[in-house]
Amino acid sequence: MSGTPAPRPSYYDSPVLPKIMKYMGLAHVWLYRGTGGVLGRTYRVGAAGRNPAPVLLLEHRGRKTGAIHTAPLGYIEDGSDLVVAASQGGLARHPQWYHNLLAEPDTHVQIGRRRLAVRAVVADPRQREKLRPRISHAFVNFDNYESWAGEREIPFVILRPRS
């Protein structure tokens, strides 16, 4: 980690926070889709205003319901692969999209107006070590999220293009 992480916000323990995050995500997806990524293509909230991160829309099928969901996620490129971090803002639990991808890794992402077929693979420890500095640089709050997540190691998910 670089520097001292910020203290964990007290509102992280609020049962309302996951609902707020859910509705903010739905609004983000709506704006992104409605404008073909003109609005919502980067995260510029808080510290990310200084170093905006690119955003993709990740489709994932609910492992219990079978319903298709979409999550706006910051990503980095690693060759032809896209990499996302299952940080969920540093909450103690993995996000639902992560569990859904473990159950059904073949899915689609949208970048701008482009839709791509991908296969999700969780980075192994060696890949994670290689990607960690780039993730930390791309997402200015990542070191905080890692600290706030407690015992949970934040997984990196590699989205590999499918033919």
Description:
The N and C termini lie far apart (37 Å). 29% of the residues lie in helices and 29% in strands. Strands 1, 2, 3, 4, 5, 6, 7 and 8 form an eight-stranded antiparallel beta sheet that branches. With 163 residues, the chain is of the alpha+beta class. The mean pLDDT is 90. It has helices at residues 17-35, 96-103, 125-138, 142-148, and strands at residues 42-43, 53-61, 68-74, 76-78, 81-85, 106-111, 114-122, 156-161. The protein has four helices and eight strands.
Quaternary state of this entry equals single chain
Shape designation: globular
Binned, the helix content reads 25-40%
Overall number of strands: 8
- Report the biggest beta sheet as strand number plus sense, adding barrel if it closes: 8 strands, antiparallel
The gyration radius over C-alpha positions equals: 15 Å
Task: Note the total helix count.
Answer: 4
Distance between the termini: 37 Å
The fraction of residues in strands falls at 25-35%
Which stretches are low in confidence, meaning pLDDT under 50 for 5 or more residues running? none
Tell me the series of helices and strands, N- to C-terminal. HEEEEEHEEHHE
Q: Whole-number average pLDDT?
A: 90
User: Which class do the helix and strand fractions yield?
Assistant: alpha+beta
In short:
This protein has helices spanning 17-35, 96-103, 125-138, 142-148; strands at residues 42-43, 53-61, 68-74, 76-78, 81-85, 106-111, 114-122, 156-161. It has 163 residues and is an alpha+beta fold. The mean pLDDT is 90.
